Amino acid sequence: MIQTPIRVAAALPSLSWFRAALGRWALLFALLPALFLAPARAGALEQQELAVRRQDGGLVLDFALRVVLPRAVEDALSRGVPLYFETEATVYRPRWYWRDERVARQSRQWRLSYQPLTENYRVSLGALHTSYATLAEALASMTRIARWRIAEATQLDPDEQRYYVEWSWRLDTSQLPRPMQLGIGNQADWVLGIERTLRPE
After folding, report:
1. Of 5, 27, 126, 200, which has the fewest beta carbons less than 10 angstroms from its beta carbon?
2. Per DSSP, what are the bridge partners of residue 131?
3. Which of 159, 143, 177 is nearest to 49 (CA)?
4. Short-list 124, 136, 131, CA closest to 175
5. Is residue 75 within a helix (H) or strand (E), and if so which, with residue range?
6. What is the tens place of the pLDDT at every residue in 59-68?
7. Segments in the chain forming alpha helices (H)
């Protein structure tokens, strides 16, 4: 009696899975000097301007920051790791009988990458891509917004004067490659952000 051999290959992970996993861990080990061994340099984040005002019945927000990346973050960027930055503004109306009502929310996300062939920095906002000669210029494009419309007139009550805005700007480490997320943990170098609560002028 001839027995049919049992096929076990299907139960084993594919070779492509091993290659992908190996590539992810290779990226982490390649970045270890940037994560742990690079000379320490504290990042800096300074608020230069921040205001919300009414315009044409809605609300607009202006902000300007001065940002210097920590050494570990800048080194990772120079080694080909894209960085993601996000700003978010949420408009609330106070209510005494229940939690405050969220009236509007707007957000923007930038992708910053380094192009070694051209030695330029590229900033992507949605489908819009812009190149900059220096890191300072690239950061300036992501840290200054004027007349950002965060609420339309139809979303606001013209007789209500108690609206307030919760605003934030931060480096989004959740967008980093997974091995890097495990490697950086809660390192202070990778915690870069600011949060403010303000009322319309």
Report:
1. 5
2. 122
3. 143
4. 124
5. helix 71-78
6. 999 999 999 9
7. 15-30, 32, 71-78, 135-142, 178-184
